[in-house]
Amino acid sequence: MATHPATGRAGSGGRVLTGTRIRCQPRLRPAGWWVEAVLAVGFAALTVLLARPGPLTALDRWLRDLSDAHRPPAAYWLARAVNLLGNGGWVMSVVLLLAVLLAVRRRTVRPLLPPLAAAVASGVVLTVLKRVTARPAPHYFGPVPAFTVPGQESYPSGHLVNAVVWYGIAAALLAPYLPATARRLLRAGPPVLVCCSTIYLGFHWFSDDLAGLLLGALIYRVVCRVGWSSIPLPDLLERRPQPPERYWP
């Protein structure tokens, strides 16, 4: 629970929340910025390792071949259904709709700020990285390392980034209405299921998913660190004075 410096107005005509206690603010554990540093370094190191054949690419190929050899129709369609949990289009739309409902209920656009920031950050970062790394997908049946086939965009897994970022943001927005156990399941369950489904279906290499987990966790933590609750807003975007104790963001 965080407390910000009584409600006043910014010099530009916007309202800034002061003396406001923010409830249900996302708690990042561990809390230090060193976690983001580890995630970034881990992603960079993984990318370097994938630039040439090695044990990691051998593991990727082995898991692909194992999955291809054990994929009966029933399991295939079940995995396809599970894989939809990582579809960025509809997951992002649902979270944005949730944020809109909260914004209307609270008469402030603040609930929209974290998901909009997450959408921009994940979209830009994924687009750039996928094009630069140029890694073919498992069923391209060509080279396994990254930086080998221009136009191929398997790395990192966008499904895993979506699962980590969007279900994390959803859990944070729903914190006032869900018990802690349900929030933990919402954050952790979809990424695990999506990871298993993408590997089993051959949509992504294992290392693509690992990179997506690292990158998604990094984006989620950075978005949650921004002081959305204290950003000055004009009256048009926050029509009702906010109570001294309010929910994040």
Describe this structure in words.
With 249 residues, this protein is mainly alpha-helical. The chain has one domain. The protein contains eight helices and six strands. The chain has helices at residues 34-49, 55-69, 73-83, 88-106, 113-133, 158-173, 180-201, 206-225; strands at residues 2-3, 8-9, 14-16, 21-23, 233-234, 245-247. The strands form two sheets. The chain has a three-stranded mixed β-sheet with strand order 1-4-6, with no helix packed on it. Helix 1 runs antiparallel to helix 8.
Radius of gyration: 20 Å
Poorly predicted residue ranges: 1-13
Task: Please summarize the sheet with the most strands.
Answer: 3 strands, mixed
Taking the alpha carbons of the first and last residues, their distance comes to: 12 Å
- Tally of individual helices: 8
Mean pLDDT: 91
Structural category: mainly alpha
Oligomer: single chain
Principal-axis shape equals elongated
- Relative helix content: 55-70%
> Would you list the SSEs in sequence order as H and E?
EEEEHHHHHHHHEE
For the largest sheet, list the strands in their spatial order.
Answer: 1-4-6
Number of strands: 6
Number of domains: 1
- Beta-strand share of residues: 5-15%
Protein name: Phosphatidic acid phosphatase type 2/haloperoxidase domain-containing protein
Keywords: Membrane, Transmembrane, Transmembrane helix
Pfam families: PAP2
InterPro entries: PAP2/HPO, PAP2/HPO_sf
